[in-house]
């Protein structure tokens, strides 16, 4: 979903798999393995906004931070040996509580997939939890 490649993609051979590609890409190569669709920008906005390039860079950086968080969790949950994997339920229930970056990552993911009702549901959960939304949260939702 985030790379645009499924686990059976032809590029994955000779011991190379999605887990290894993601692990090797953290943190500097994350943009190289991410689906370019995640970084599409509104062409109309480009024509009408004087500071489009600045806003594009700002938005791309936010998406990159979201992707880093998601990829890190994915890598931790997909270790080769089961005993090395974290349990995904511990990420949200037993483990450390998600911080604002984690919430923003999940909201950003839903928005990028046009799953706006799910994004708004997460936003409501965020508002009622220990962690509070920040300017990035609002920017993600407004841009969606």
What report would you give on this structure?
One of its GO terms (cellular component) is membrane. It holds the Pfam family PPR_2. This protein is 60% helix and 0% strand. The chain has 144 residues and is an all-alpha fold. The protein has one domain.
Fraction in helix: 55-70%
Strand content: under 5%
**Rg, please?**
16 Å
Distance between the termini: 18 Å
Helix segment tally: 8
Oligomer: single chain
The total strand number stands at: 0
List strands and helices in order, with pairings.
Blueprint: H1 18-25, H2 30-33, H3 43-48, H4 52-77, H5 88-94, H6 100-112, H7 116-128, H8 135-143
Notable traits:
144 residues, 0% strand, repeat, 60% helix, PPR_rpt, globular, TPR-like_helical_dom_sf, LRR_receptor-like_kinase, mainly alpha
Describe the structure in brief.
With 144 residues, the protein is mainly alpha-helical.
């Amino acid at each position: 979903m985030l790379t645009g490649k499924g686990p059976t993609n032809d590029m994955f051979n000779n011991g190379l798999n999605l887990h290894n590609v993601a692990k090797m890409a953290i943190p500097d190569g994350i943009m190289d393995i991410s689906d370019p669709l995640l970084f599409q920008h509104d062409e109309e906005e480009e024509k009408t906004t004087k500071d489009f390039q600045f806003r594009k860079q700002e938005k791309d950086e936010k998406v990159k931070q979201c992707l880093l968080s998601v990829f890190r969790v994915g890598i931790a949950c997909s270790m080769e040996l089961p005993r090395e994997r974290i349990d995904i339920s511990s990420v949200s229930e037993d483990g450390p509580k998600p911080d604002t970056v984690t919430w923003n990552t999940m909201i950003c993911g839903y928005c990028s997939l046009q799953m706006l009702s799910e994004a708004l549901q997460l936003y409501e959960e965020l508002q009622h939890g220990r962690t509070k939304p920040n300017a990035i949260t609002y920017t993600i939702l407004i841009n969606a």
